[in-house]
Amino acid sequence: MNQLNALDTTFEKLTNSLNQFGLNLPDSDFSKSESFDHAKNVDPNLLFQINTSLQSYIDLINDGPLAEESEEAQTKRHLKKFLTKFGLTVSDKVFKVLTDKHLVEVNSLSHQQIYRSINFFKLCSYDLGALTFIPWNKLFHRPEEITKKMFEEINYVIQNNIEYMTPNIPVHFLTELCSEKKFGYKFYKIAIVEDAETGAPMGYLTIISVKNVLDQFQLLH
Question: Is pTM beyond 0.90 here?
Answer without folding.
Answer: no
